[in-house]
Design a protein that fits this description.
Mean pLDDT: 84
Number of strands: 4
Strand order of the largest sheet: 1-4-2-3
Number of helices: 2
Structural class: alpha+beta
Order of helices and strands: HHEEEE
Largest sheet: 4 strands, mixed
Helix content: 10-25%
Length: about 80
């Protein structure tokens, strides 16, 4: 398998995509444990800040409700592979 087939994005592709988004949006990533994974196409979602969550639950949670405390972020979700 070539390097081109291993990775989902290059820096140039990611930069080009991110340039199309509002430049003041925060950026978050999914994660847990160690190592590195490819990521899906970045997306804009609404989240709520919940700093009291344990580290494995994430400091921010997706939120669909109309809560005043939600805000938009760009999220880069890692690819989750089956064990």
């Amino acid at each position: 398998m070539s390097k081109k087939e291993l990775f989902h994005f290059t820096v140039g592709q990611l930069v080009d995509f991110l340039k199309t988004l509002p430049q003041d949006l925060p950026v978050l990533t999914s994660g847990y444990k160690n190592g590195f994974e490819n990521f899906y196409q970045p997306d804009i979602i609404k989240v709520k800040h919940e700093p009291e969550n344990p580290y494995y639950e994430g400091e921010f949670q997706a939120s669909d409700d109309g809560d005043e405390e939600t805000f938009e972020v760009v999220v880069i979700r890692r690819v989750v592979r089956d064990e």
